[in-house]
Design goal:
EC 1.7.1.17, 6 helices, five-stranded parallel beta sheet, Rossmann fold, two-stranded antiparallel ribbon, alpha/beta, 210 residues, oxidoreductase activity, acting on NAD(P)H as acceptor, NADH:quinone_OxRdtase_FMN_depd
Length: 210
Amino acid sequence: MATVLYITAHPLDPQDSVSLTVGKQFIEAYREANPTDEVVHLDLYKENIPQLDADVLKGWGKLRSGSSFDRLTDAEKSKVARLEEIVDQFVAADKYVYVSPMWNFSIPPVLKAYTDATSIPGKTFKTTKSGYVGLLSGKKALHIQASGSVYSEGPLAAVEMGYSYLKKILRLYGIPSMEAILVEGTASSEHAPAIKEKAIAHAKEVAKRF
């Protein structure tokens, strides 16, 4: 049995979001194909994800200098402990499915905060004399991303920082490749329905082998 983190980063309901609609169809098909796997849905807009603020940085600094956890302030304890929970849950999973829209060429802020929470030395990667070494080899990842225009090729490819960012982060963790379902061109009212239906069909196909 595998554990799948289904990580969504959109504030709307699936019926109002192309990325969530495709993601919902994917995860339903995945559950049907893998009935014994555990799927954990993380709606990042409803999760407590501490920012890397002064409390976190000071708390981490105290721990690195040898202070005990009890010496941290209440705010530092709360945020540092929550970040530990997030990364431990992430490390324990076997597969990751990210679902997000492209906003301003990139990912929503809550998803960036989540990647900050999971990018922890000694947990998801380590630093050696020869560079970074990922600690999560053998795991799988998928990104479902919807965008109004086409960014996978053509003149806008150079400014695509959503899927490309997550792919680099997962590579840092030791996951060599991240599969993608890119739902592009949804701003076209004429072609959007067909684009969405094609993406749903693709998602169901990917779900059977993911």
